[in-house]
Structures are given as C-alpha cells and as structure tokens.
Amino acid sequence: MQFKSQAVAKPYFIAAIGLFVGQILFGLILGLQYVIGDFLFPAIPFNVARMVHTNLLIVWLLFGFMGGAYYMIPEESETELFSPKLALILFWTFLVAGALTIVGYLAVPYATLAELTGNNILETMGREFLEQPLPTKLGIVVVALGFLFNLTMTVLKGKKTAISLVLLIGLWGLAVFFLFSFYNPVNVVLDKFFWWWTVHLWVEGVWELILGSFLAFVLIKTTGVDREVIEKWLYVIVTLTLITGIIGTGHHYFWIGTPEYWQWWGSIFSALEPIPFFAMTVFAFNMVNRRRREHPNKAAVLWALGTGVMAFLGAGVWGFLHTLAPVNYYTHGTQITAAHGHMAFYGAYAMVNLMMISYAMPILRGRAANGNKSQVLEMWSFWLMTTAIVFITLFLTAAGILQVWLQRVSDAPLPFMVAQEKIALFYWMREWAGVIFLIGLIVYIASFFVGGDERETAK
Amino acid sequence: MSGAFTKSMARNIFYGGTTFFFLLFLALSFDTHSQLPKRDMRQNITPQVAEGKKLWEVNNCIGCHTLMGEGAYFAPELGNVIARYGDEGVKGFIKSRPKEGIPGRRSMPQFNFTDEQLDAIVAFLKHVNSINDANWPPNNQG
C-alpha cells in the first residue's frame, strides 16, 4: 500500500461482500417463491424479499464503489486521502442506515414503514428500486456528498489524472441523478419519466464511468502498459458510453405514455449501447496481451477480463435482444428483462467490484498478491459464479421466450398465471443454477482464509 | 490506436460529445413535456386517483406486479387490469385474498382495504388504463 489512508477501503470491501451474501440468499428465496408460491408466505412475501434482494445489490455495489474509490484516489493523486476519519464515519453511517432499512423491510408491513418514516411528508416510497424510506434516502445523499467532498478535496490537492477525473464525473453524476428519486409527481407518466433519470442514467450512464475508471486503474497496475495508452482508451470508452446511453434512455419511453418518436430514438441509440461494452472487452484483452510485466495477482487479471466479457454479453448482447421497439412491444416486462438484468448487473457491476477487491485486498493485507492456494480458490469461485449466472440467464431467457409466446403471441393468449405454471420447469432450473452461484460465493469467501502464510512478495 | 490520435483529442471528444448528447436529450425531454398533456390524461387526475396512486406505492404493489410493463414479473400486469376484470372484478379479487395464502401457490397478501380505499385503487388503475401508451400491452392478458 503506497498511502496509509488507502486502508479505509478495507471495511468498505468487507461490508460489500457481507451484503452480497445477503443479496444472494434472498435471491434464492425469490427463486423458490417462483415455483413454491407460498414459501415463507405471509411472513416474507415476494415483494419484501425482492426489495431486500435489489436494495442489498444497490447498497453493496455502492460500498464497493466507495471502497474502490478510497483505495484508488490516493494512489492516483499521489497524496493521502483528505480525511480518512470522515471516510470511516461515513462508513458506519451508511452501514447502520442500510441495516436499519433492511430490518424495517422485514420487520413491519411496508405501509407501516412508510407511515413511521415520514412518507406523508414527502412521498417517495413504493417505486421499484427506490423503495427506501425518506430518512434512508436523505442518508444516502449525506453519505454521497461527504464521500464526494472527501475525494474531490484529495484530487484537488494532488495529481489530476484522467482516471480520477472520469471516476469523479461518474460519482458526481451518481449523486446528482439520485436526486430525481425525491421527485414523485402524482402524474404517473411524469413519475415514470423521471424515475428513469435515476435508474437508467445510473446503470447505463454514469456507473459505466466508474466501471471504466476502475478497469483502467487495475489494468495499469497489473499490465504495466503505458498510462497514456490506457487513458486514451478510457476516454474513448466513456465517450461511446454517454453518446449512446444518454439518448438510449429512450428505450424505456416506448410504452409509458410518452410520444411515439421515442421508439426511433430509443431503438437506434440503445442498439449502439453494446459498442462501449465491446470496446471495454477489446481494451482489457488488448492491454493484458501487451503487458510489460507478470503481476503475481492472476485472479485480479481474470476478473478484469471477465468483467469486460460478461458486461458485453449481459448488458450489450442481452440488452440488444429486446431493445428494438417492435421486439420490445412483445418482450416488455417479461422474464426476458429479468434475464438481461441478472447478467448485466453481475457482469458489469458485481464483477468490476470483485476485480477491485481482488486487486486491492491482498495489498491492504500487506502482500502484493495472495498465495497460490488462495488464488486458485478465487478463480474457482470466478468460474462457478460466472457459469451459474450464464445458466440463470439462459433459463430465464427460455422462460421469457415461452412466456411471450404463450401470453402475448399465440392465437389463444393465456392468462399470466396459467403461462407461469407452464414454464415452471425453467424456474426450477434457474433455482438450481442459483444454488451453484451460492456455492461459488462460499468458495470466494473461503479464498480469503486460506494460504495466507505463503506470501507472494513480487513487486 | 495510432499516434495521431492523442489523449487530449480523446478527452475533448468526450466532453464535447457528452455535452452535445445531453443537451439533445434535454431538448427531446422538453418536447415530450409539451406533448404529454394530450397523452397522460392529466385532466382526469382527481384527489381519488392521487389517493389510489399513494395506496399503490405504500403497499409496494410494484414489488410483484408490473404497471405499463415496469416492475416485478411475479404477478400480472395491472395497467390494463380494469379492461380485463372490470371495477368490481378487481375489488372482489383484492378483498377475497386469504390471509394465510393458498397452499403451494402464489397469492396476493390480504391488505384489509376499506371500501373507499378500494375505490381509490380502482380509480388509479382506471386512469393508468386510459393513458395513451402506444397501444401496449399487445392483448388483454397483459
């Protein structure tokens, strides 16, 4: 570790992994509820479990982003973090707020939670992914602003690299677009229109800047390729991301009451959204092939290559599958969307965080890379989780195609629940793939606890 | 990438391109807002519809259902549920959900809504059903 203050990243990474475990456990509950409808009912209804699953995902990714940024920014800026103390205070604030929110979801009915937490003062709850009670939403804003203040001050007093600038733009964008979560007009079309300014402009916009910046940082460190080359690539990738992704928001404006011209704007621009992901894959492989050094951390390099490929498949290819308006007319709001969501989030954002953790955690623990035994386990977990997500996606895609056919295309369209029962086999297979994912995650965690004694000491 | 294309050129294209497309997005959004009154039936948003939307939100209906295709995919689309089952059909269904669920099957929780609340929910769903959403969903089944 070059700078002492980088150590604040460690608790963030540990919390991220802990919440990731929770996310997967609730994912398995949801998968089971798809086939055993009354599983845990009425104690944990599907909507509650889903809220926990998706909110834990968001929160662990944010922990990962923050940890990654706290690790990376001092090294990029070549100076200590502005305030390590603030970073730790914000860590505990965010963790406690997050935990209380999850407890709230599970302990009381959602309507009661809304009543207790001041939803009547400003109605923001009950919208997908933005279900957090008002105090939690305000907490997220406070933590984000404190975090951004800390990072911005660090960059201002140190060296300003392209990698830090792109990261800062991504993180500031994250904070700014979250503010739309406070805007909930009674007109449901406007509500939905601006809801996407948080949701889409996060995951298909500014988060990709965070992804690109992390990837560039780890590639510089592990391949030793010239910074000028890597940063040029980074600019090209984030340019492609934003010129396709911003107007690409239009692919959510096909069927929610917005004018029909969005079918053209949305289809054309979002059809181009795979390009930046493809560029990212080419970038990662290209840099690794041109490497000037053999970094002892093979696992981190594997995650870096993996995140490029899986983000391209999940976000790029599976996104493209249903993004053209004439196709989306039939697939909108089916298991096709769920299939895309699972692979895209894992490939782009779970994997980039796991890459950063993989690279930084050994250094935070005082070694350049983990021992061989630990890295072998970590690579096993990579393949188990990645293969599992591929199968989850394939099974959900099969379920989705059948659902679209049975419910929307055939001559005698079936009611929703009748169609669901006919495709249950694929939900069962998805659940088993989910069990493999969990095993992969257990192996991943185990990799932190083995072979710590045989230390790699290469530079 | 060849030497002629420098990092500072890439950076300028990034800032320029992003600004241009963000402004284009704002212009399209602005135009959309001028067209929405003809499509979103806002003149029909009564306090009852607003109350229905609030009930929709604070009971987290979107956690299982979709509305105009957005939400969770565990339970049926409700943007057109009024066309599918009618006012009384929707109210009757919500009222009759067994408290302990249905063995082995998915079931909606029993929310114990009052008659006024049920009317508000139906008013909201009716309003959503009336929005001009480019003729989605493809058929009555949602």
From TrEMBL, chain B:
All copies of domain Cytochrome c, residue ranges: 47-129
Keyword Plastid: no
Keywords: Heme, Iron, Membrane, Metal-binding, Transmembrane, Transmembrane helix
Lineage: superkingdom: Bacteria
A Pfam family that the UniProt record links to this protein: Cytochrom_C
Protein's UniProt keywords contain Iron: yes
Gene3D superfamilies documented for this protein: Cytochrome c-like domain (1.10.760.10)
GO MF term (any one): heme binding
Transmembrane segments: 12-30
Protein name (Swiss-Prot/TrEMBL): Cytochrome C
Species in which this protein is naturally found: Dechloromonas denitrificans
